[in-house]
Amino acid sequence: MKLSKLWYALAAALAVLAGTAVYLYQSSADSRALAGKRAVTVLVAKSDLAVGTRLGDALLLGAVTREVYPAAALPSDVVTSVTADNDNLRINHAIDAGQLLLQSELSDYVNPNALIQVPAGRVAVSVNVDDAARVANFVQPGARVVAYWTPTDATESRVLLPAADVLAVGATSTASSTPDQNGNNALVTFALTPDDAPRMVLATKTGTVYLGLLPKAAVKTGNAATDSTLRAAR
Question: Are 63 and 53 in contact (CB under 8 A)?
Answer without folding.
Answer: yes
